[in-house]
Amino acid sequence: MGVLNNIWNGFLGLVYPEVEGCLYCEVDELVTDEVQLCEDCLSRINYITDNYCEKCGRLIIDEEECKNCEEYNYQFNKARAVATYNQALSDYIYDMKYQGRQALAKPLGQILGIYGLEFYKREDLDVIIPVPLAKEKLKTRGFNQAYLLAREVSKKLDLPINDQVLKRAVNTVSQSKLSPLKRKENVSNIFYCEPEYVKEIKGKYVLLIDDIYTTGATVNECSKVLLRAGARDVSVLTLATGEQG
User: Going from the N-terminus, what domains does the chain have, and what CATH number goes with each?
Assistant: First the structure.
């Protein structure tokens, strides 16, 4: 896990070709084409390298068991996240989603792809599926951040993306405003699989991509739907997650 422990150090031009311009702070500082963020912006991320739950990927502090997994019957195989949801990563994600800076999906997706290679074997996966947005939200925002992230992961893992099979039926209240119980209720029965595309996931090992994992309610509901449609296995990869303790 040395790449994870020193993730930003490996991006400073020691190994990879250099390019100019950090896509977040826009400093005229050399970064690499592996991840187009400067050293300072990369170092502000609180990377998860150990002490995480083997099932849900959340950072565990001062606990032997993951409280989250005790409360939820997760249907996915396992979930992994790049980092805890600290202020820096929150700012990066917020600006990407709400401040018109969707270009940030490129470096954030590049980091996600690097972590994907650390946590998952490419030969154990068949297809990448982004968590979908409802049509109303997609129209308002103009893009699905999970798809933009998945596109970068696809390049890194050399896997196809399928953003046609999994759909979101209705727009819901933001999960960030809800209690754990309400989060679960909020996403219950809102995802479905398009019948004409179901054949493309039957018997397949799926990697589900999203930006934030809080309680896991959203990705768990997606996993249920994909498994019912015939997917053989679903694993999860996200940028941010919470922590126990």
Answer: 1-43 (no CATH), 51-241 (3.40.50.2020)
Q: Say if strands 18-20 and 30-32 run parallel, antiparallel, or are unpaired.
A: antiparallel
Question: Residue 96 is which amino acid?
Answer: M
What is the separation of C-alpha 20 from the centre of its chain, rounded to a whole number of angstroms? 26
DSSP conformation letters of the chain: -HHHHTTTGGGSSSSSPEEE--TTT--S-EEESSS-S-HHHHHTS-B--SSB-TTT--B--S-SS-HHHHH----SS-EEEEEE--HHHHHHHHHHHHSS-GGGHHHHHHHHHHHHHHHS-GGG--EEEEPPPPHHHHHHHSS-HHHHHHHHHHHHHT--B--SSEEE-S----GGGS-HHHHHHHHTT-EEE-GGGGGGTTTPEEEEEEEEESSSHHHHHHHHHHHHTT-SEEEEEEEEE-B--
Q: How far is CA 20 from CA 149, 152, 187, in A?
A: 21, 19, 41
**Are the C-beta atoms of residues 242 and 57 closer than 8 Å to each other?**
no
pLDDT band of 6, cuts 50, 70, 90: low
At 232, which amino acid appears?
R
pLDDT, tens only, 105-152: 999 999 999 999 999 999 999 999 999 998 888 988 999 999 999 999
Quote the CA–CA distance of 132 and 7 in Å, as a whole number.
29
Name the average pLDDT for the chain: 86
pTM (predicted TM-score): 0.85
CB 93 within 8 A of CB 108: yes
Neighbours of 102 (CB within 10 A): 16
